[in-house]
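Regression test case RT-17, inverse folding.

Input:
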């Protein structure tokens, strides 16, 4: 074990590290500046257990109903060896619908490492036309097992589908059960799906690179298949995930440099969910966090961090904080708006703006 690995094991306690998945890797990009999160995720801490132990249990995750609905929709879309899916994907890519497509189910049996090896072999074989894969035919791979390194840990990832030989490239296909109504999907869900798909694209590109192929054979355009309007009729959309690829890559590189982050973390820092709750809360408070409202949808510690950050303008979101002159403390904002002189000359401009805003608000209320 390296020094860093020993340190991370001590932070997490006796439990084995929690493994990441595409959703948790995607969530890492939600608040990349947060040291607390990077250290906890790097150490593989059981964050739901930790949040519960300090008295602020996480309150997000898919309901059982949503999971069941998602599975039913996915099975419907993939029925008949993916015939309808193939048509949807080909049409959305603007290529002729192939007369033939092979369907390979990589989702069943075996342990993840064996599945990953089998997936790697079959996916790379799809690059070379053979008797069973003629150049003009498409190949659909159901639930291939891919891999990515996160903070030195090998993580297994399972996209819904990878389509090969359509438009000459691999395409990641994600099937989601949230609806697209009048051509519009929920922006937050769409953004999360784009980052998650970017994680799969990255993993597939790394596989091709490791096997000596051009990683650009994996398209940066992913296909998102959702129900149309209020029906179960599937509709496919193209998402360009180039920006998300950069963001995910940057955050994974940061996780690989955990020893740099750990240099600023107290030597006795613990996040072991079995430790005393008060000691845990004290310990967490000594590692800097950067709470923002987005944390509520992406990090299990959100309620703890929100409570800790009360009275800070950051809890209202970055745009509000910036609109308040970048001042961190709500009390100071109110004092300046009420006419207290700025003690720091750098705050003079913000103070003048806040006083003007307060006066305009008072005038508006008086007129009303
Ligand atoms: S909830 Fe807390 S630990 Fe998690 S990302 Fe936000 S500030 Fe960081």
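Golden output:
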């Amino acid at each position: 074990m390296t020094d860093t690995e020993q340190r991370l094991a001590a932070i997490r306690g006796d439990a084995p590290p929690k493994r990441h998945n595409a959703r948790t890797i995607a969530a890492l990009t939600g608040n990349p500046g947060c040291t607390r999160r990077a250290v906890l995720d790097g150490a593989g801490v059981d964050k739901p257990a930790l949040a519960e132990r300090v008295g602020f249990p996480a309150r997000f995750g898919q309901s059982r109903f949503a999971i069941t609905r998602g599975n039913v929709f996915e099975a419907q879309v993939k029925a008949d060896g993916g015939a309808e899916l193939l048509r949807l994907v080909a049409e959305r890519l603007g290529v002729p619908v192939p007369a033939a497509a092979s369907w390979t189910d990589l989702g069943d049996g075996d342990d993840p490492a064996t599945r990953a090896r089998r997936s790697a072999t079959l996916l790379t074989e799809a690059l070379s036309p053979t008797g069973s894969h003629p150049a003009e035919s498409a190949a659909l791979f159901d639930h291939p097992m891919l891999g990515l390194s996160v903070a030195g840990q090998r993580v297994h990832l399972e996209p819904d589908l990878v389509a090969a030989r359509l438009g000459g490239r691999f395409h990641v296909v994600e099937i989601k059960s949230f609806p697209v109504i009048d051509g519009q999907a929920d922006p937050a869900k769409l953004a999360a799906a784009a980052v998650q798909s970017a994680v799969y694209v990255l993993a597939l590109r790394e596989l091709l690179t490791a096997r000596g192929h051009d990683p650009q054979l994996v398209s940066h355009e992913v296909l998102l298949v959702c129900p149309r309007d209020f029906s179960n009729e599937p509709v496919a959309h193209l998402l360009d995930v180039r920006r998300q690829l950069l963001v995910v890559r940057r955050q994974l590189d940061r996780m690989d440099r955990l020893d740099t982050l750990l240099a600023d973390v107290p030597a006795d820092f613990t996040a072991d969910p079995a430790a005393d709750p008060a000691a845990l809360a004290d310990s967490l408070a000594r590692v800097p966090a950067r709470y923002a409202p987005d944390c509520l949808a992406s990090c299990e510690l959100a309620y703890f961090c929100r409570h800790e950050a009360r009275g800070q303008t950051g809890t209202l979101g970055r745009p509000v904080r910036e609109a308040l002159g970048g001042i961190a403390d709500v009390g100071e904002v109110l004092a300046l708006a009420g006419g207290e002189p700025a003690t720091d000359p750098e705050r003079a401009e913000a103070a003048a703006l806040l006083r003007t805003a307060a006066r305009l608000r008072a005038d508006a209320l008086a007129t009303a």
